[in-house]
Amino acid sequence: MKKNTLKRLLSYVKPYAPLLLLSLIFAVGTVMCTLYAPLLIGDAVDCIIGKGNVDFETVGKILIKLGAVAAAGAVLQWAMSNCSNKISYSIIKRLRNECFDKLSELPLKTIDSVPHGDMVSRIISDAEMVCDGLLLGFSQLFTGVVTILATIGFMLSISVKITLVVVLITPVSLFVARFLAKSTFRLFKEQSSVRGEMTGYVNEALGGIKVVSAFSREERSLEEFEVFNQRYQKIGVKALFFSSLVNPSTRFVNGLVYTGVGITGAISAMSAGGISIGSLSCFLSYANQYTKPFNEISGVITELQSAAASAERLFAIIDSEEQTPDAPDAVTLENANGNVEARNVSFSYTKEQRLIENFNLSVKSGQRVAIVGPTGCGKTTLINLLMRFYDCDKGEILVSGIPIKDIKRDSLRANYGMVLQETWLKTASVRENIAYGCPEATDEEIVEAAKAAHCHRIIKRLPQGYDTVLSDDGVLSQGEKQLLCIARVMLRLPPMLILDEATSSIDTRTELRIQRSFEKMMTGRTSFIVAHRLSTIRNADVILVMKDGNIIEQGTHGELLKKGGFYSELYNSQFAVV
Amino acid sequence: MLQLIKYLKNNKAEAVIAPLFKLTEAIFELLVPLIMADIIDIGVAMHDKNYVLKSGGLLVILGVLGLACALTAQYFAARASFGFGTALRTDVFRHISSLSYAEIDKVGTSTLINRVTNDINLAQDGVNRFLRLFMRSPFIVVGALVMSLTISVPLTLIFAVAVPALSLVIYIIMHTNLPRYKQIQKKLDGVTLSVRENLSGARVIRAFSAQKREEKEFSEKTDSLCDSQLSVGRISALLNPMTFVIVYAAIIVILWQGGVKVDTGFITQGELIALVSYMTQILTALIAFADLIIIVTKATASAARVSELLDTKTTVAETASAPCREDPSAPVVSFENVSFSYPGTDEPALSGISFCLNRGDTLGIIGGTGSGKSTLVNLIPRFYDASSGRVRICGSDVKDYRLGELRGKIGVVPQRAVLFSGTIRDNMLWGNENATDEEIWKALDIAQAKEFVEKKPDRLDERIAQGGRNLSGGQRQRLTIARALVRNPDILILDDSASALDMATDAALRRAVAQNRRESVTVIVSQRASAVKNADLILVLDDGECSGLGTHEQLLQSCEVYEEICRSQLSESERGAAK
Fold it and tell me: Which of A103, A128, A437, B453 measures 20 to 30 Å from B364, CA to CA?
């Protein structure tokens, strides 16, 4: 599994192979320059021995060389950073785009069932983790290894004995870092679980803060919060302390290496044939930077692990099952005649709970169908099936005599105009929102539609009129948003309409006015209407009374009342005298 | 940030000790190159092995002491910062609880949640880093300068040029990039928003076959994000190479000038090496400082947001100290010429509302969206304060009550059905902590919730998931109604709280409430004429003004707005006495 993830990630790197190679070459160059520089400084120091004993000519030459090395190192480093930036940001972009494109291929069933916050965090944060972890990881791992090997090489070229001292002490640092990383990891995990609980509590308590104050529970909720807060503090101090040990500890080991080099180097410098003072100074600066890559490498392992975990979460999106694609011979439905038929349709969201069973319906072109019934009776489900947001488990639905499974999804949906109870508007201007269904609409058409939906005046009152950008928490009330959704459909006027509680948040007086526009819109169009309001229901050509996923009664208002069944019970109970 | 410093008050000692120990560690670190210089100049030059070993021992001791100091510093910094965070969190949480609806509306709950969680954590992290590093880096820079002064004053001049040059480079790069980071964050927010919208709007997007368009828009956003990241990356990638070049330029000058000084005998070879070491120490310190500044900048921004929240004062202050005297003969609720406008707007949300309700009365409030229905009922428990006029409960102004006392008399059922995780019983006890199971069942019965609660395997002990996700909208609504009824309040407010109920359940609920609450006041807010039709008094609101007050029959005759609403919703026979 892990191996596959890694392999697959590498396939994303592949298009950038030349760039990667270049960045690796630059990395080697950078390392060489940074390591060669101390060597040159050492050489220079060796030419500056004491009073009257300075070889200025050689020092000058060495210093020019040093300048060149430093400049080259700087340029290479900059080039390397740019290469790896380019690789990593491009890969993130591609991963995000692929995930996003996948979203529109997912069956709605999946979208309805996954927590959206989780999905968002995958596409945003996990993508970031993959890039940080994997690519920085790789480059650090690579430069780290190169640095270590090259340092050992450089050091060996100066003195085998002192190199041995360095190589023997350094693993202590690794050991310390590993130990700390382990305990820190455990503590961090505990800390984040406590933080998660606390955030959960805060979400709930502050999300319902109005209720909390309505019931005067402020003190109580503060007490409850304090319990989490204290627990968080207790674990947090520990976790933070342990995690902040890594730096001082490695600095300490570093100091030991430095001292070891200093002592052995000094002793060696005393004896004949030992190293020079310049070499000693060079060794000392190696000792200073030698432990760093070790720490980085041990860090890289954890980063790689978390990157792999994040990548798996992203791949899970990319791999998730798509909706069955449109059949290759699927037809494009140009202009549906409005006949809709359901034959023996069965459907359920979960296997355990049956919902719609053996459902039959025949609607003639231009008919107005009202769907009524208690909450959870399957009204919205029926709409999901009509729009083919969900596929029937059994049976089929036909539009214009063609089974909808044989119609291209987009063209089927283009024949429906849909207004739902839950208003969804884009974070974009009012204009763009109204023209969402047909972006090529002219301004006049947009205003026309807004007038028909009785929201022209509301829009005019907005700070920038039709150019006001809407946002989630923005300026419009629920009812006003619903009006915009209606305008959106009015602009398109498809042959069939679905209105699911389309006016639930609109006040009655405005609704009354919209009703006239609706009347006009519905004339000659097959429409499915879910509503609580009787005025809408009463005028329907057919009322479908649903209960527990089945149509139990069907007829006009008058017929159903006369029948004295469930509908009349429902109808009378609403207006029964208290 | 400065305003929040007082939250370190419980950890003053820690907050002082941590940087002190950090400084001590830095001093030890600064001594190392000097000792090494002596090893070279004295030990090696004199061939004194003992001196070398002794100095080596000293270095190890310095290392151990340094480690001890660092650990102490880290420990106290951790305690201080978490002490800070914890105290701040408590205070912010308490402060939020004291805010009135007006402030909550203005700030928004998601923002409030963010402040308590993310922002305080960031500020806390900032304090921790600050205590550990903010003193250390400048100290190392200054210390290294002082140390090199002891070696050679003229050579230190090179440092005096190099350090400002390094600082300038770091400053310029950060200064150019900080606003760009904000821009990147903004673009990233845009990308996040797209994902979120496309999930929540999946149905609409597909209904309009706009998937391809959304995909294109998304890829444009990620393109632009990627471009910004690359351009910021190009600039910040300059930091390391440029500092590298400056440091090496300085080292080259030190070596050359140092060579001259050594040649003339002013300094020794070992001291020259020490100078080079100090230069590298300064570099490391400055780079750590640059990282720190980024973190502290973020933390300061968070801290500023938290302070801003703490500065938001509640508009509904509790002024009463003693229990309020009630007049049993006065109306239970009375509004006297009440007007209200939301803070920051001139447009009144309510104007000149007057009515009174006696024991046993039911008031129905009807009107369009935004007509002020909810605002009106929110004035009764003092979620907002009236801008002018008086709201009286049992004869006394609501402002003369203590908030707990006032709200204890009222049962509110808000529009949005909010339940809390815990059992059904836990939620019911919110209304009245001493309620018996019998009383709870009675409330559930009135709220039409008895039947489905009885069907739950654990009945009253059935667990409700966070946000009540394991219940349907209608079930949640009925439980919130029951929660208010458990209190058996003098005043029950139903704020459009039956919207998720089907017509039959809604009617049964109203009937049960009417039968069981003959002694107290009930206020029903609704868009449905059928819900208010049988109330003792109906208040018709239109754009914040009372356009009718009376019974159903009276209003049908006298109030055009009401007549219009009824005509649209009720059949002729239901409307009754219409002409």
Answer: B453
> Containing H/E element for A183?
helix A160-207
B197 domain-assigned: no
Number of neighbours of residue A297 by Cβ within 10 angstroms:
19
Residue A408 lies in a domain: no
CB A74 within 8 A of CB B255: no
Q: Which domain holds residue A472?
A: 416-493
User: Is A530 within 8 Å of A374 (Cβ atoms)?
Assistant: no
DSSP A10: H
- For chain A, helix (H) and strand (E) counts, in that order, are 22, 12
3-state SS, residue A531? coil
pLDDT at A578: 34
DSSP character string of A192-219: HHHHHHHHHHHHHHHHTHHHHHHTT-HH
Strand order in the sheet with A340-347: A356-363, A340-347, A394-399, A402-403
Neighbours of B444 (CB within 10 A): 26
CATH code of the domain in which B47 resides: 1.20.1560.10
Non-local (6+) Cβ contacts of B172 within 8 A are none
B338: domain range? 333-575
Q: Tell me the pLDDT band of B509, cut-offs 50, 70 and 90.
A: confident
For the residues A315-338, what does the mean pLDDT come to?
82
Q: State CA B452 to chain mean position distance.
A: 36
Q: What is the DSSP letter of B6?
A: G
Please report, for the domain that includes residue A484, its CATH number.
3.40.50.300
Strand partners, B423: B463
Is B96 in CB contact (< 8 Å) with chain A? Answer: yes
Query: Which residue among B222, B262, B467 sits closest to A93, beta carbon to beta carbon?
Result: B222
The total number of structural domains in chain B stands at 2
For residue B327, is it within any domain? no
Confirm whether the ipTM is greater than 0.85: no
Mean pLDDT across chain B: 82
Q: Which two tokens stand for residue B571?
A: 């059949």
Contact between residue A209 and residue B104 where contact means Cβ atoms under 8 Å apart: yes
Same domain? B384 vs B293: no
Q: What is the mean pLDDT of residues B8-25?
A: 86
The b/e string for B245-267 (b: 16+ C-beta within 10 A; e otherwise) is bbbbbbbbbbbbbbbbbbbeebb
Q: Are B94 and B314 in contact (CB under 8 A)?
A: no
Q: Helices marked H in A369-477 — which ranges?
A: 379-386, 409-414, 430-434, 443-452, 456-461
Contact B60 A111 (CB under 8 A): no
Residues 6+ apart with CB under 8 A from B413: B477, B480, B481, B483, B484, B492, B493, B494, B495, B497
* Mutation choice for B interface testing from A116, A213, A481 by most B CBs within 10 A: A213
Please state, as a whole number, how many other Cβ atoms lie within 10 Å of the Cβ of residue A174. Answer: 16
Query: Residue B576 above 50 pLDDT?
Result: yes
